[in-house]
Amino acid sequence: MFDYDVIIIGAGVSGACSARELSRYNVKACVIEKEEDVCCGTSKANSAIVHAGYDAANGSLMAKLNVKGNEMMEAMSKELDFPFKRNGSLVVCLSEEDLPNLQKLYERGVANGVKDLKILNKEEVLAMEPNITDNVVAALYAPTAGIVCPFNMNIAYAENAYTNGVEFKFDTEVTDIQKIDGGWKLVTSKGDYTTKFVVNAAGVYADKFHNMVSDKKINITARRGDYCLMDKSAGKHVSKTIFALPGKFGKGILVTPTVHGNLLLGPTAIDIENKEGVNTTRPGLDEVISKAGMNVKNIPMRSVFTSFAGLRAHEDGHEFIIGEVEGAPGFVDCAGIESPGLTSAPAIGCMVADILNENMGLEPKADFVAERKGIVNPEHLSKEERIALIKEKPAYGNIICRCEMISEGEIIDAITRPLGAKSLDGVKRRTRAGMGRCQSGFCSPRTMEILSRELNMSMFDVTKAGGHSKIVVGTNKDVL
Which residues are part of the catalytic machinery? Predict the structure, then answer.
């Protein structure tokens, strides 16, 4: 007797999308995550770009799933209620000699099935984006590209999977995987679990688990990307995502608006050995700052109010590895999911669920709940609706985060909803409380009080991001 039919390792966006699509069927499934919440790895720190699909090599799995994921994104954002905007992108060419490379990118995109691609001349580019550098020669315009909130997307998929019966185990690290008769045993920091099938969606650690069960080894390198985030005063400097065409001036740094109205610069691409190495570095940020103006002029750098770094799971062959591992029946890889992984995630989830269905002959669930509603934001309501909401629930009239105008009601919802927040970062990812210019300097004590109250825990036990990241330390706990 197995504990589960399917165990998914990793609660990032690939694992969450796979779990949600699997939850369409009558199956006992579980997601195991070593961190305290969903969206704690690559999925929480990236460019938040929905790529059009012209970059990946023709015929690659990356190219196929990128285009499919892009096509799915708008419908999924409405079904699962997460922010998405199809703002379009420009790949900027800065020299006449690089024009053939721009043409090749266009042709690759057409071959990949990207719709409505067009090469614009200098005048057309500047008419579309006045803050593009005067040195522009031409640009590839992709109107199907977009921007998304990666936190809310990841959380939305996970919440919907949970609503449809998928279990989640957090703070649970898989330390070993052993083949057993008819399935697998996962040894974890919180006991052993048996399952018929395993889905390996472990991000930068996916090679570790693959190599436990296969003689054909893979290698995943943690590729760090440094970013600078600018406040909303700079959010309209460009309306589209601006990429550099790799050429004689180097690769450059993208400049993009976010769905929340900020401006984002980055990333670098620096291979590191430490798979937990998400610290920014002075050289990395210097590169972002020095290259940011390559394609966009007059960037108001004084508006930068924070920086961060994320890791990409770069597989040596630069290709998604999705499928049952040869010689390891019942072990399904979902590995090497780097850019355009976020864009591809909805399609990745469908592919993983299809693989499992083909192997298991699953029965569709009659009572599958397709829709999910996110946290109510009073700022998105009409004046009349907001007054009615606050009258019914006064906590929505109590502003906790002044930078982002987040109310106590929203924070309570974030904590008490399915797979609710258990830490300051959990609240921040769900509501944006603490993501504004003061970077939680004002709101964190109040948010901690709400966490303490709603979860019935001491303030000494409230953490920034789970584990040992406690905010208040000392010996006299009676004072709190």
Answer: 51
